[in-house]
Amino acid sequence: MAGALFDLLAWIDRALTVGHTLAARGKFAAWGPGSRLGRRARLVSPGLCEVGAGVTLGEQAWLNAKDDRGDGKPTLRIGDGTYIGRLAHINAWRSVTIGRHVLIADRVFISDADHDHADPTRPILLQGDSFGGPVTLGDGCWIGIGAVILPGVSVGRNAVVAANAVVTRDVPEHTVVGGIPAKVIKPIRTEAETRAIEANP
User: What is the pLDDT of residues 95-134, one digit of tens each?
Assistant: First the structure.
């Protein structure tokens, strides 16, 4: 009995997710086939967001787009097959580009803007915010749980950002980075490259 009830609740949960996706997809600048929007996701200006095919946006993810350029064109682009975890938060004032088959874990923060804080006499809350630099996540990269990607950063193809890392500068492709601020831990090599290095120490 308990197993049947669990299966029923799981089916209802999936149905609610499908319904949420169907209700929201028309609000986006583009929504690819097979993409799914988790329930309780927060959407700010989804008309400035392009979502490719087969994308998963986790529950309670926050897509926060802004027409900072003033041209009405998308500021957030998410490539085919990308997975964005629960409670992820993405600010896209001008340009956040996420490639294809990118893996973004839960609670990741990505932003191309920051709070202004130049005036020491005023509360930071009242100083507004501004664009800091475009953010690009290359195809196939993995952003670990709780990581932070700051304005102006590019993460290379198939790179790995370790859990809870704070990325303040570009990450080369095929590289693992971690720490605060994030630094290179090791390269990611093919088996052939590894064997060649071991053969010629």
Answer: 999 999 999 999 999 999 999 999 999 999 999 999 999 9
Angstrom distance (rounded) from CA 70 to CA 103: 30
Of 145, 42, 32, 40, nearest in space to 82 by CA = 32
Q: Are 64 and 87 in contact (CB under 8 A)?
A: no
Helix (H, G, I), strand (E, B) or coil at 123: coil
Question: Could you give the CA distance from residue 94 to residue 130 in angstroms, rounded to a whole number?
Answer: 10
Q: What local confidence, expressed as pLDDT, does residue 10 receive?
A: 66
Query: By 3-state DSSP, what share of the chain in percent is helix, strand and coil, each rounded to 5?
Result: 20, 30, 50
Q: 48 φ, ψ to 5°? A: -100, 10
Burial class (CB in 10 A: 0-12, 13-18, 19+), 161: buried
Gap between the Cα atoms of 133 and 150, Å rounded: 9
The active-site residue, picked from 20, 89, 101, 115, is 115
Residue 115 appears among annotated catalytic residues: yes
Assess contact for 132 and 170: CB atoms under 8 A: no
